[in-house]
């Protein structure tokens, strides 16, 4: 079972904090709990360093969190400096014993960790130029308190002058920005309020509110030094799919996938998509088209000249590197099986009202996998990635996977749309051909589910698991014994098997 975290509007967070603030037994009790969580994560990030920390402190509660956390770090042996351009939280400043600078220009930017306590939940305004320049000058990891400064807590919209965090520590539950803004990095959630009310913490108040707006998943936690810190839960394997063939299984019962990808101009797209599918499931894979390049790489594949030459299939992928494929897309959409529409097939779909209507009329699952440029050819919807994915899913009555570091997934089913996001946790998937790999992973997963659960409802054909599998494979493909290094799409294909095994381990 996949376990998401819920993301809430800023107003809901404030509403749920209010009773805890009223019930405090002494000033800043809740703030001190938050600061302890920040200090705990900071300590883990400082392992193996000289523990030189810079706090950038704003005028609100986030600045107080940062100052209190900084003092806790000092008491644990860290060398902590604060830049405070405005008027900070008075009591926190009184407790802070580190060196304080008013102007960032006075600083030597050599630090091991920068803690962003400038704005957080309350503001998405751009940083002041001198403060933004300081963040650019400091070549070290960044830990943001609550929400990175310059990122709108409700929309995830990032100002040009904003903080891009490696890690964000937030409290009680996620803000919407954490599900939408890659600038948040990896988000860790610390519940607070236990010293005030051991029964009703901030997290429990948020659960009671019932006002979550969005669900989100973390595909990869790229910070092994922080594995023991409460965080977004990692994704397990796809919800219902079993990867190991059972005692009576064969190449047909494990799912038959048809792939229409690649062309004379772009043969690599077909090779990548097919390789990804083969490494994701144990069923039969058909390649439709001129199959010589594919067979040289993967002799397991069965080649068919055209769609009408296919025998029974459980799912199809069309589009990666295919070129003009409107006629093939119409044929594939007429099949009563789940279909993944990617790349050139999305271009064909965007320019044809007839094809769009064919998608709307389908009873089987249709999954569109656009990046931002392809999405613009399909829809003029505005708003956050989640809102735009929802709008297109509602329009075409399909599932939309709007790809990015944070991928928005909108799944239409009988008039309702479920929306979630997946934070890849890393950007190693941002390489040429990576989308072709994702299309193959999704297609193979759909074929396996369709074969194992004939007549299953649309909800079982979710792409959330495959999106997370792709992100984990990308992360693993960049690992070397000496640390991360540049990767490529074919290495992502090779890493899929290990990614599946790790997911199955939980």
From TrEMBL:
Gene3D superfamilies: 3.40.1190.20, YjeF N-terminal domain
Catalytic activity as recorded in UniProt: (6R)-NADPHX = (6S)-NADPHX; (6R)-NADHX = (6S)-NADHX; (6S)-NADHX + ADP = AMP + phosphate + NADH + H(+); (6S)-NADPHX + ADP = AMP + phosphate + NADPH + H(+)
Keywords recorded for this protein, A-Z: ATP-binding, Isomerase, Lyase, Metal-binding, Multifunctional enzyme, NAD, NADP, Nucleotide-binding, Potassium
Cofactor remark: Binds 1 potassium ion per subunit.
UniProt gene name: nnrD
Residues annotated for (6S)-NADPHX binding in this entry: 269, 321, 371, 436
Native source organism of the sequence: Corynebacterium glucuronolyticum
GO biological process assignments: metabolite repair; nicotinamide nucleotide metabolic process
Gene Ontology molecular function terms on file: ADP-dependent NAD(P)H-hydrate dehydratase activity; ATP binding; metal ion binding; NAD(P)HX epimerase activity
SUPFAM superfamilies linked: Ribokinase-like, YjeF N-terminal domain-like
Residues the record lists as binding AMP: 403-407, 435
Keyword field contains Cytoplasm: no
Function: Catalyzes the dehydration of the S-form of NAD(P)HX at the expense of ADP, which is converted to AMP. Together with NAD(P)HX epimerase, which catalyzes the epimerization of the S- and R-forms, the enzyme allows the repair of both epimers of NAD(P)HX, a damaged form of NAD(P)H that is a result of enzymatic or heat-dependent hydration. Bifunctional enzyme that catalyzes the epimerization of the S- and R-forms of NAD(P)HX and the dehydration of the S-form of NAD(P)HX at the expense of ADP, which is converted to AMP. This allows the repair of both epimers of NAD(P)HX, a damaged form of NAD(P)H that is a result of enzymatic or heat-dependent hydration.
PROSITE patterns (UniProt xref): YJEF_C_3, YJEF_N
Name of this chain's protein: ADP-dependent (S)-NAD(P)H-hydrate dehydratase
Quaternary structure annotation from Swiss-Prot or TrEMBL: Homotetramer.
Domain YjeF C-terminal: 234-503
EC number: 4.2.1.136
Main EC class the enzyme belongs to: lyase
Residue stretches making up the YjeF N-terminal domain: 9-200
Cofactor(s) required, per the database record: Mg(2+); K(+)
Sequence similarity: In the C-terminal section; belongs to the NnrD/CARKD family. In the N-terminal section; belongs to the NnrE/AIBP family.
Keyword Disulfide bond annotated: no
